[in-house]
Amino acid sequence: MTTVDESVGGALSAPELVDTLRTAIIRGELVPKQRLVEADLAAEYGASRGNVRVALSELSVEGLVERVQNRGARVRAVSVDEALEITEVRAALEALCARKAAERISDAESDELRGLAREMEEAVDRGDRESYSLCNQRLHAKIIAVSAQKTAAATIQRLRGQAVRFQFQLARQPGRPTVSLPQHLAIIDAVCRHDPDGAAEAMRQHLESVAEAIRATNS
């Protein structure tokens, strides 16, 4: 019996396949409750069956894929109510991270955040939703990194994965960046001014706004 060579040139590695499948789920190319058949995925994405199994296992941990008894794997369907609950939990955790970031941030890190604020303003001025969305992700990641709250960071990453499809929908809505930009700037300002209470409140208000937008979009 022969084994698949995981290092075949051109074949996707497991981490690459995780990224590829995650993006397909986020963008709606793989839809909720769609079956994920190992053989089909291996053929479509040019990956070994072993790497497909590893990728599906990782995405299951992230909450994007679920295993169904006797049915294999499928894209996990997250309801609006669950997405709202996830966002509320994120608000509590990210408010904690914003508070800790405001206490710990260095001058160099403040300069980086203020530079990111300028990038976000320029993206909104250009009407570049894609760049703004990337800046949004960088901002949240940077604040979490500065906070040095490893347990919160791991929990937030898992929660964001589960509701990321709803967040992607919001990010692509015309006019959404003009709503969230002032909220992001308020977070940055409070963190850079070493204002823990202000940073926590700004982050909480921002994610409350995200929850309201999810509710309105899916009502």
Salient structural properties:
219 residues; mainly alpha; Arc Repressor Mutant, subunit A; Four Helix Bundle (Hemerythrin (Met), subunit A); 2 domains; 3-stranded antiparallel sheet; 9 helices; 3 strands; disordered N terminus
Q: How would you sum up this structure, described in words?
A:
The chain has nine helices and three strands. The chain has two domains: 14-75, Winged helix-like DNA-binding domain superfamily/Winged helix DNA-binding domain (Arc Repressor Mutant, subunit A, Orthogonal Bundle); 80-217, Four Helix Bundle (Hemerythrin (Met), subunit A). With 219 residues, it is mostly helical. Mean pLDDT is 88; it is low at 1-9. A hairpin with a 3-residue loop joins strand 2 and strand 3 (72-75). It starts with 13 loop residues before the first helix and ends with a helix.
